[in-house]
Amino acid sequence: MTPMTLSEIARVVGASPHDVRDPRALVTAPSAVDSREVVPGGLFVATAGARVDGHAYAAAAVADGAVAVLASRPTGVPTLVVEDVQLAIGLLAKHVLERIGPTVIGLTGSVGKTTTKDLLAQVLERHAATVATDRSFNNELGLPLTVLRADAGTRYLVLEMGAGRKGDLTYLTGIAPPQVGLVLNVGTAHVERMGGGQADVAEAKGELVAAVAADGFALLNADDPYVMGMAGRTKAQILLYGRSAKAPVRAEDVRLDGRARPAFELVTPAGRAPVELDLIGEHQVSNALAAAAVATALGLGVAEIADGLNAARRRSGGRLEIVERPDGITVVNDAYNANPESMRAGLRAVKALAGARRTVAVLGAMGQQAEASRARHADVGRLVADLRFDVLIAVGAGDPLAMARAAESAGQGVAVHAVEDVAGAIELATALVEPGDVVLVKASSEIGLSACARALAGA
């Protein structure tokens, strides 16, 4: 965090100080929206949500060391009062970026953002001081909070940028204009709120590369036609990556080891080097290539990039997170989120991991799939059957029932069960799993199926 006085912060965001005894008091630590994550010297950002009002925790945050609170009303402790807290924290982040000037890397996509961000951060931080998005804090609050963790010594700022609607990426890139813009893919995540089709999703995702200046880089996935269609929206230099032979940054000789971890030959304009990832699923190759493309654009050598990828480990929970139980049961927690693309990737990765072992899929709903939701859930059910999973537990009413019916009618011998809620899934899965099983738990985050993964992992 770049040290700033309360008076400077107030000037930048247009705040009215209340109960501020010393305007010269320095904020020296990162800001937080969760009072439990406040650190001494930081700024507590109080937001009023649907279930929790951060203003109620202002006094506790100051008692834990926050210098002051950024809020929409006085709180009885040192507070900088603004009309719009979200707008204010964005203004503060933009001010900090203009002062410290790191290389900003923005990345977006329908799936794989967090894994790619984690891989890229681990490659770059071996080279120079790097700050990257924590977990999936990629929205209008999370991105500014990430920026505010940077300081004058930060060389690379890796910002995962989420988009739930058209215009979201225009807003985020207005706060943090990227010198490097990376688009991973265009799927059906958030399709309901973007207009109903993948072309609408592509239009929204393309806002990122449109924001990259002419002297920057736009990195496009050569394997995704929707992403390739964004080439005309950027003035930046384009660098392609992917499995395609036309991509300057590409993978050759892709294979999986006995634990479904991919290996490949990384090819860049500067040469080639072997990569062996410590992640499961062939889909991780695309994420690794995306990270390699960014590093290539930034001037890192191919051996340096490969070394970083080989040393990288999973950093964010709930994404193909593997827990090995003492009784030989393997629980794969992929319940942070779900859409058709990530469902397919997760199911295939777990099947590859299992080999000849019995497989159990505990699957809930995929959110925001618009009018095609029922059909897309049915497609997932058919894939469960086609991959010859032994057991499917469909969790929830509505679309998960379509998933269950499709798996059952496929006639591949999968034992199909349907339960009403997460509690039912925990009870049934606990009763059904056997020593040696590999269990995938996956759904959109709002379903709360991560509780089932935790219960199974701790059983």
UniProtKB/TrEMBL annotation:
EC number assigned by the record: 6.3.2.10
Binding site for ATP: 109-115
GO function terms (MF aspect): ATP binding; UDP-N-acetylmuramoyl-tripeptide-D-alanyl-D-alanine ligase activity
Domain Mur ligase central: 108-295
Keyword tRNA-binding: no
Keywords, alphabetical: ATP-binding, Cell cycle, Cell division, Cell shape, Cell wall biogenesis/degradation, Cytoplasm, Ligase, Nucleotide-binding, Peptidoglycan synthesis
GO biological process: cell division; cell wall organization; peptidoglycan biosynthetic process; regulation of cell shape
Pfam families per the UniProt record, alphabetical: Mur_ligase (PF01225), Mur_ligase_C (PF02875), Mur_ligase_M (PF08245)
Gene3D superfamilies, alphabetized: Mur ligase, C-terminal domain, Mur-like, catalytic domain, MurE/MurF, N-terminal domain
Record domain Mur ligase C-terminal: where: 318-444
Domain Mur ligase N-terminal catalytic, residue spans: 33-77
GO cellular component, one term: cytoplasm
Location of the protein in the cell: Cytoplasm
Record's keyword annotation contains Cell division: yes
Pathway: Cell wall biogenesis; peptidoglycan biosynthesis
Reaction(s) the record says it catalyses: D-alanyl-D-alanine + UDP-N-acetyl-alpha-D-muramoyl-L-alanyl-gamma-D-glutamyl-meso-2,6-diaminopimelate + ATP = UDP-N-acetyl-alpha-D-muramoyl-L-alanyl-gamma-D-glutamyl-meso-2,6-diaminopimeloyl-D-alanyl-D-alanine + ADP + phosphate + H(+)
EC class name: ligase
Role description: Involved in cell wall formation. Catalyzes the final step in the synthesis of UDP-N-acetylmuramoyl-pentapeptide, the precursor of murein.
Record-linked HAMAP family: MurF (MF_02019)
UniProt record similarity statement: Belongs to the MurCDEF family. MurF subfamily.
PANTHER family xrefs: UDP-N-ACETYLMURAMOYL-TRIPEPTIDE--D-ALANYL-D-ALANINE LIGASE
Protein name: UDP-N-acetylmuramoyl-tripeptide--D-alanyl-D-alanine ligase
Species of origin: Nonomuraea glycinis
